[in-house]
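Figure S7 source data.
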Amino acid sequence: MHTEQSQKLYEKAKDLMPGGVNSPVRAFLSVGGTPRFIQRAKDQYLYDEDGNAYIDYIGSWGPMILGHNPDFVLDAVRKQLDSGLSYGAATALEVEMAELIHSIVPAVEMMRMVNSGTEAVMSAIRAARGFTGRDKIIKFAGCYHGHADALLVKAGSGVMTAGIPDSSGVPKGCTADTLTAVYNDLDSAEALFAQYPEEIACVIVEPVAANMGVVVPKKGFLEGLRALCDQYGALLILDEVITGFRLQIDGAIGHFGVVPDLVTYGKIIGGGMPVGAYGGRKDIMQMVSPLGSVYQAGTLSGNPVAMRAGLTQLRYLKAHPEVYRQIGFLSHRLRSGLEEILARHHVPAVVNGIGSLSCLYFTAQPVTDYTSAKTADTEQFRRYFHFMLDEGNYFGPSQFEAIFVSNAHTLREIDKTLGDADAYFASAASTQ
Ligand code: HOZ
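Tokens for the predicted (4S)-4,5-diaminopentanoic acid complex:
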């Protein structure tokens, strides 16, 4: 595979941007080699600057649930462009968006649009603290909630990939009130509540942890967190930046039937444009400025072009429940195919997943939390990743990222990927 153009760009980029990228995982940090510089994308494919085509299993890390550039989304965005890029003033589009989200997830009684998942989470936590008058928060090791200071504690995603425990540049004071529990371990959360019964403002959790690979909540875990929050007067925040409008139209809230006090969104809600949102109980959201004393603002919040893209994609998803059946079916095929291949080649590995989110971990033990996820052999992942990339399969360049399947994928791509995986494990077995 030719990668000369990507290599040239990477050399230039490294001089101008940290690691040559604008978001760390893209630098291929843990897998080595040259990050591919993507020139364009369509449907289920990415095309790089050297003209290579890849089956895309990232989907921009989640937003492209319908594949890249569905014509009807592009048409809607093009139309919007003629009316202006940004006004910094209220629009009918924002009202339509809020109405649509409320109709899909009634628990989101009131909401605020922001520009990213990071902003959504940061703001939701501020609202929770303002509402409860408490400072401490509980998060779970391996869950990633964006890069706000207070949340860079035992975080997943790029932090986990880089193997750094916490980020430098975060004053101790910013994380002093962040308590960390073990994912899927209710007792660990309960112990923190017992220690600080009246100080915990909220528990924030990824309902499916999708930034340490993919870890599915055990039965009773989310329900137990809900009960603990109720018992101790704390708020439950579900971080649905990845699962929102992906697990099913009403996300993890619909799937698990656990209703949080606040929820955060990103990715799919913007249809590929930078959008995030937080919302939930009206009495809490009424604390947010200008109604209440919790300040939060944004020049580009509710940007009309981004709203148009998100609204168009969400409307489509709401009207086409078959999308979820299809991406679930394809992902199930991918997971069961991988399991069969791994068993046939006697590879000690596990495949986790739910709906259209999957992860192949190179470890023999079940992956249920951060500690077990960390047992994965990242060197083995590196070899597998590069083989698959050279064959035209673009997975997240880290053991700890999810595989995303879109509605543009077909059985043809899934079966090609499985064929490549089979060839890899056959050759890996013969060279061991
Ligand atoms: N935080 C994202 C992965 N969970 C990566 C975002 C990006 O590099 O675009």
